Amino acid sequence: MKKWQLVGSTTVLGTALFLGACGGAAEKSEDNGSKDSKSTESASKDLKGEVKGDGSTTVAPIIEKVNEEFHAQYPDVTVSVGTSGTGGGFEKFIAGETDFSNASRDIKDEEKKALEDAKIDYTEFKLANDGLTVAVNKENDFVDYLTFDELKKIYSGEAKTWKDVRADFPAEEIKAFSPDQSHGTYDFFSEEVLDKGDIQAEKNADTNVIVSSVKDNKNGIGFFGYNFYQENQDNLKAVKIQGPDEKEPVEATEETVKDGSYALSRPLFIYAKNESLKNNEAFKEFMKFTIENSADAAKESGYVPLEDKDYEDALNTLESVK
What we know:
With 322 residues, the chain is of the alpha/beta class. It contains 14 helices and twelve strands. It has two domains: 136 residues, Periplasmic binding protein-like II (D-Maltodextrin-Binding Protein, domain 2, 3-Layer(aba) Sandwich); 131 residues, Periplasmic binding protein-like II (D-Maltodextrin-Binding Protein, domain 2, 3-Layer(aba) Sandwich), CATH 3.40.190.10. The chain has a five-stranded mixed β-sheet. Strands 8-7-9-5-10 form a five-stranded mixed β-sheet. The protein is elongated. InterPro entries: PBP_domain (IPR024370), Phos-bd (IPR011862), Phosphate_ABC_transporter (IPR050811).
């Protein structure tokens, strides 16, 4: 990850230009720049406080990478981030236990209502894009792609064997795995593929367990965030997906996720409590830092960054919360 830009760099440049216009020597400019750098470093060390977040396991790797760099610059700010899943994170957010909530889906209407009832105002920020990846066991030599209808057969419980999915597949029992209802990934898949129907599969709150289950079962199939596949691609086989409006199946890649041609592409979010942004200086700085560095963190975590303008717009939105 790149070195993070110090807040005072613009000030340093402005001071150097002012001294040059007044006929000041380069040495004076450098001295002033050095003092300003020390001032910025001192301000970083002076910032103290506590920040609490929770939510999506899919978004967590991005926040973890950002937090590592943030802590190096602001060692006296404690940022704790739980991974209760998108739904679990919103429960804590609604209860007033956290300053921010990570989510791998849009906030639901009932969650909006609960926040309204709790008199909690919030702001939504997009951090990156993800391609929910469907994967089968590495030894599976017959599934190269699946349509939405075929996915629906599997995860509605209609298909018991692979032959029930497609006539030329073997008559072997399907072992389907999925996240549980605490995850935004569950909600996203349910809405996109099953028309909000219940997923019939062996469910688990731990995404790593789902990955391992597919790896350990020859007839296994599961779905999870793109980065979980990236980290385990030597032991899994990604399945191309043909969406309802597509003539050909599409593989999940950085390009197809970014342009939306992959049918299971989705944005990743962080929801920030406005009161905390106004009254907790440490949290406001953490959010600014997160937005400024999400592109690199997303890419290093195996996700797809937004456009530069999207992050600029997010910073403007953040500054508008007064």
